[in-house]
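The following record pairs a protein chain with its ligand, zinc ion.
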Amino acid sequence: MSEIDSLKSQLESLQAEALAAFAGAADLSGLQALRVQYLGKKGALTEVLKGVGKLAPADRPVIGKFVNQTKQALAAALDAAEAELAIKAKAARIESERIDVTLSGRKAGRGALHPVQQGLDELTAIFSQMGFAVAEGPEIEDEFHNFDALNIPPEHPARAMHDTFFLKDIQGDDGEPMLLRTHTSPVQIRAMKHFLAEGGEPPLAVVAPGRVYRCDYDVTHSPMFHQVEVFKVGRDVSLAHLKGVLQHFLSAYFEKDVAIRLRPHYFPFTEPSAEVDIGCVFCAGKGCRICKGSGWIEVLGSGMIHPNVLKSVGIDADEFSGFAFGLGVERMVMLKKGIPDLRLFFENDVRFLSRMGVMK
Ligand SMILES: [Zn+2]
């Protein structure tokens, strides 16, 4: 065999071997190694080309053309193999990232309204349905709205009994001391003043839910708690109206006909004043541990708005009268749901909250 035929045959077998190797490459890095092995500077093709020097000068262009063809064939085969591997790699990645949409999902935990918020909403809704307008007032109050206007002058013992948080660093516009309101009754004053300032004339019926503060903490007291204040001012508003509203509201809230009784009491801002009891919702009046055997449970304080309170906002107490009552939201929720300890509301134990809360 001539030198040139021998070289040609070497190149042919090299090409066949290389093409088979390219087709069998498992991945792109394996293919890159083969590219170096066959076409690299020290590769198999270069090795074969060393034989070209031994050829007669006339044969060299002939073999040169043949070498170029082989080179091009290998390069084309490499590119094709590379493209194929790239497609396979992409398909494998898509396969690995496939999502089974038929699997059932993981449920996100659902929130619930805090039982106190739920109570506030429920109580407010009942009065709202009865035609009372909803009003809110500031939690940081001055002494006028929290005490003076409500017929609790500075020397009044009730003022000391309120266990008030005074705010050291905050003063009112006129430099007066400010405090955290001890009840929602100041909203009575603010709502009446606002109503009159807008040119309104009684009747006026308002429900005012909100947070109040007293420095007190035990099984039945928390330094922050919630009240709902309810009042109506108009001509000929009487104790009978108060009792009718209470009867309707308490039966609506406890979702049954509850017996109520008014017991004479004293509050500075109402005259006459009465504490309101309901027939025990736990024993239906027979007597149990919760009602201490009496069959009655105290639920709120009420009365006819004191003329001095009406006067403090400029309402003629001879022409108009009103009733008012305030209730503790936590206490109402405890009675309705049979919750034994006030502190459960503020410990934020998720087990308690999810059992007592309403899912929305
Ligand atoms: Zn009872």
